[in-house]
Amino acid sequence: MTVISSTKDFVVRTATYKGGVGHASWILHRLGGIGIAVFLILHIIDIFMIVLGKEMFDFFLFIYHQPIFRPAIWGLMFGIFYHAVNGVRIIIHDFFPSTFRYQREMVLGAWVIIGILVVLTVGMDIFNWITYAGSH
Amino acid sequence: MKKRTLKIKRFNPTKDKKPYWQEFVVEAEDTDRILDALNHIKWYVDGSLTMRRSCAHGICGSDAMCINGKNLLACKALFKEVGDDVTIEPLAGLPVIRDLVVDMEPFMEHYRTVLPYFISETPPPSYGERLQSIEERKIFDDTTKCILCAACTTSCPSFWARGEYIGPSAIVQAHRFIFDSRDDGAAARLDILGNADGVWRCRTIYNCTNACPRGIEVTKAVGEVKKEILFSTL
Amino acid sequence: MKAIGQMPRPKSGSTFELLSWFYMRVSGLLMALMITFHLLWMHLIVGLDNINFSVVADRWMYPITGTLWRVFDLLLLIFAVTHGMNGIRFSIEDYVHNRSWQLFLKTAVAILLLFLLFIGSYIVFVFEV
Ligand code: SF4
Ligand code: FES
Question: Which of A29, B78, B83, C127 has the CA that lies 20 to 30 A from B195?
Fold first, then answer.
């Protein structure tokens, strides 16, 4: 019955439909959610490596801490905070349906909170990174 | 009068393998409606252009289409609102019959499943009408305004992804009866809407609310139905 | 119509989707708080580059705080895995329309869910230095 016949149609329609902030938020929420789920799998497996003992575990973390992965980690920080804060916004809309009138304001507020959290964590990472690199 | 370009997605299943874009240049005022331009093309330029329209005053719900990437009624959208150059496509998520005409049957099928008619277990009063207070009426006033244009349902990514999803319009129609103090069919309707392809496919995206030409607070109605099912079940 | 919130209970049908919807909100809300704490702790207090075996071992081995950390980590694990895999299920139902593929992927996700819960909680319960 669905007639967005192909995946391509669906992607094009999703990318071009002008639905407003809610539409864009949903796209980010879903893409971010899938990304976080993939990372979650890796994260549980890497913590599981602790059974291999101190040397192996620290070796795995050493790989994680390579500079190439840093941007990916920061992207992940943004993704997680986005998914969390936007999710709370959706929960508020769901349980207090009349708040939809403040959707734009709430999206703006969400971005402010996300911004603060990302700046805090990523900023601290960069600060630590510099001082850590300096101390070795 | 200004020259304006209309880029229209054409498709004639007896001739074309795939839809294609065709451009028309028309002269129109700022205050002209998109429907005026379409009518001009159909009547004086290319009679094969096919679209639905009837009342031309935003009340029959037959000319919803995707105009510049947004679902609108062609008879309510003015050039000064949508811009000089306009791209027009049929509604997404429904089979295209020809040009801008889509098959509304899947949409109507969902509409019928929510029992969109008055159900009462009590006989009508012997004299006069079934009465209702102003407050009782206010609860569902908004959702009585729906004209079944399908602009909301075909703006919803959940519906594009999955045609089995009942869609915002059917939920609006159900809301109109569920919250009517004279109606007794709420349990049956909540049952239908509580299914896997009912209200739970809604992700609170608000495309439907933005699309509705009647200004119905669609997502709010969906949210009220969700809460009703949740609290009557838990 | 009965009073709002007190309508007759829907009769038939499964309540699975309802519960799944509700669970996504509840776990999401709790996790929003827990994950913010988790990330702020790891990035602000501990520092990303300082994380190593002893950091993890220390936090789990202290008598009382160790137990609290283990409870916290276990809850976060359960919420994250169930919420995450349920979200993947939504996406599969939305974008994979071939019946057999859908069944295959959903089964795979269910197995993955059990696997992750198993190895995750194994560590939380069993870890000793
Ligand atoms: S709720 Fe609005 S957009 Fe949806 S079918 Fe009714 S009138 Fe059209
Ligand atoms: S022609 Fe009737 S709604 Fe536009």
Answer: A29
Which candidate in C39, C51, C102 is best for mutational testing of the A interface (most A CBs within 10 A)? C39
Distances (CA, A) of B120 to B125, B145, B174, B225, C27: 12, 22, 15, 20, 40
- Ligand 1 contact via B91 beta carbon (within 6 Å): no
Question: Which whole-number Å values give the CA distances from B99 to A107, A117, B149, in the listed order?
Answer: 37, 49, 17
Which ligand lies nearest to the CA atom of residue B75 in the structure?
A: 2
**Is B140 found in the same domain as B98?**
no
d(CA A24, CA A19) in angstroms, rounded, equals 8
> Ligand 1 atom closest to Cα of B168?
4
Residue A3 has pLDDT above 70, yes or no: no
CB distance B56 to ligand 2 below 6 Å: yes
Q: Do the Cβ atoms of B205 and A22 come within 8 Å? A: yes
Residue A76, pLDDT score: 94
Contact B93 A93 (CB under 8 A): no
Q: Which residues of A touch B160 (CB under 8 A)?
A: 2, 4, 10, 13-14
ipTM: 0.89
Give all strands (DSSP E) within B94-201, no chain letters: 96-98, 101-102
Closest chain C C-alpha to B193 CA, distance in angstroms: 9
Whether B111 and B32 share a structural domain? no
Q: Which atom of ligand 1 is nearest to the CA of B149?
A: 8
- B191, two tokens: 């049952």
Residues B167 and B61 in one domain: no
CATH topology of domain C20-45+62-126: 3 helical TM bundles of succinate and fumarate reductases (1.20.1300)
Domain range enclosing B25: 2-102
Cα–ligand 2 centroid distance for B227 (angstroms): 33
Q: Are residues B139 and B228 in the same domain?
A: yes
What number does the ligand 2 atom closest to the CA of B60 have? 2
Examine the fold and report which residue of B38, B68, B102 is the final residue of a domain before the chain moves on. B102
Q: What is the mean pLDDT of residues B87-105?
A: 95
pLDDT in tens, A6-63: 778 888 899 999 998 999 999 999 999 999 999 999 999 988 988 888 888 888 888 8
Is the model's pLDDT at B84 over the cut of 80? yes
CATH of residue B53's domain is: 3.10.20.30
User: Which of B17, B68, B82, B206 best tests the A interface by mutation, with the highest count of A CBs <10 A?
Assistant: B206
Residue spans of the domains in chain C: they are 20-45+62-126
Question: In which region does residue B18 sit, left (phi positive, over 0), alpha (psi from -120 to 50) or beta (all else)?
Answer: beta
Q: Out of 3.40.50.880, 1.10.10.60, 1.20.1300.10, 3.30.70.890, select the CATH number for domain A21-135.
A: 1.20.1300.10
Answer yes or no: do A94 and C25 touch at CB < 8 A: yes
Distance B138 CA to ligand 2 centre (A): 26
Local confidence pLDDT in tens for the 129 residues of chain C: 454 444 555 455 678 999 999 999 999 999 999 999 999 998 888 888 888 888 888 888 888 888 999 999 999 999 999 999 999 999 999 888 888 999 999 999 999 999 999 999 999 888 876
- Residue A59, both tokens: 């070796």
Half-sphere exposure of C128 (CA within 13 A, CB side): 1
